[in-house]
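Record Dockerin domain-containing protein, 350 aa.
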Amino acid sequence: MKGKQNKKRLKPILKKSMLTALGLGIALPIGGTLPQANAGAIGPVINISRPVLNDGIKWLSYSSEQNDPSFVPDVPIEVTSNNTVRINLSTHFRSDEFNTLTASSDDSSIAEVYVETRQDENMPTPTSTLVVIPYKSGKINIELKAKYTVSDVPETVTDNFELYISKNGDVNADGKVNSLDAADLLDYLRNMVSRRGFSYVEMNRMDVDRNAEPALGDMNALLQGYKGKTLGGENNDYVLTFQQVDDAPYVLNGQLKDNMQNVFSTDYYLMDIDYDDSLNTPSYQWYRATDALGEDRVLIGGETGEQHSVTSEDEDHYLVLEVITHSTSNPNTEPRRTFIVGKEKIQLPD
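=>
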């Protein structure tokens, strides 16, 4: 599965002289001296403020407003008229490899998610769509699950990513719209000159005027929002950003093979559900077990290669290979451990 690196398009056009003028021309009050509004109140309708951005999900468009013809389009982020987000999953989980797609949110009070599957006589294959309905500010983890059907026995794979939701103007995502947001926005504008890196999650919140380009106009929009009371509790415009969560690669359809002279090796399909362009070499550990499922496995000391030469100690045991996959992009991601059990007990010739 291949994808291309997302490229950040939000590039504020700032000069040091402009920032100097900004610093001299706007006397920011101390936190709390501007009128404070509750940014978490739910109105009768949530308005999704475009653009909805994507931070690092390689198979998904970087923006709901992507319209640059020079780039090959990825899967679009569709924002509907009834303020839901729809993402077609049919290229991410192809129907000839996957079925039984599901989606869940770890906090359905913040946003509801589900998979909608449709098929009719004009569609040779079913279309699966992720539907996201936001309800209030917060962060959720979205878990996509599907059955990989190419294996002898279907195996479940999971793809995780996060969704950040905040009211427009709540720059620092503290649940309030006040002068602290103005201070953080000024700090952001100054740091952009020095090329400090910001995530799409941060950049999208800073884009108060919603023109997809954080700049001085956002400070004006924020301060005017205070004055006109168009930001905060009375406003139901929400900013949404999806962000990648790193998942360790999967080992699928694994089998142990008996090569010549009782040397066992393994065959499997290594899948990175996150579409990483490069994969780390897995680690290995061999075990022997008396149980056909390998549940009573005992470690074979020193056997950490991809192959194992059978010894007399292996007789009447099942061989078990643990394949440990590691993330390329995030060293803090928990490794994924897969156990591949031989189909028959080892029987040495007389």
